[in-house]
């Protein structure tokens, strides 16, 4: 099982690395793209372990744009700061104009 999880995590990291600067995607969108639509939580676990893997985990949020993974970043507001440095406004831990910034791997990588 651990080997299977490792392979899934690597696939998640590969997709997350493709999210363009100034855009975001969701755990569920990555899971769906990988053919595991009900595995959004597993994508979240992969993101939690991505810190030393050169993955822009700050660009992966929940399905409504909430920064649910922010407590996995060093510092108090690093996830928000990284997003804002890319021109994405965040208010109350939620991306402003989420739909405008959303990048769907299913349509962008088709």
Task: Describe the protein's topology.
Elements: H1 2-16, E1 25-26, H2 27-33, H3 40-48, E2 60-61, H4 78-85, E3 90-91, E4 94-95, H5 98-101, H6 105-108
Parallel strand pairs: 1-2
Antiparallel strand pairs: 3-4
What is the structure about, briefly put?
This protein has 110 residues and is mainly alpha-helical.
Descriptive account of the structure:
The mean pLDDT is 92. The protein is 43% helix and 7% strand. Helix 1 packs across helix 3. A two-stranded parallel ribbon has the order 1-2. Strands 3-4 form a two-stranded antiparallel ribbon. It is globular and about 30 Å long. By secondary structure, it is mostly helical. It contains six helices and four strands; from the N terminus they run H-E-H-H-E-H-E-E-H-H.
């Amino acid at each position: 099982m651990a080997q299977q999880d490792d392979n899934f995590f690597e696939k998640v990291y590969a997709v997350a690395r493709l999210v363009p600067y100034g855009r975001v995607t969701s755990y569920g969108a990555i899971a769906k793209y990988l053919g595991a639509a009900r595995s959004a939580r597993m994508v979240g676990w992969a993101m939690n372990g991505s810190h030393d893997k050169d993955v822009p985990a700050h660009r992966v949020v929940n399905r409504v744009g909430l920064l649910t993974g922010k407590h996995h970043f060093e510092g108090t507001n690093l996830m928000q700061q990284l997003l804002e440095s890319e021109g994405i406004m965040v208010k109350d831990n939620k991306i402003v104009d989420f739909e405008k910034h959303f990048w769907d791997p299913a349509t962008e990588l088709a």
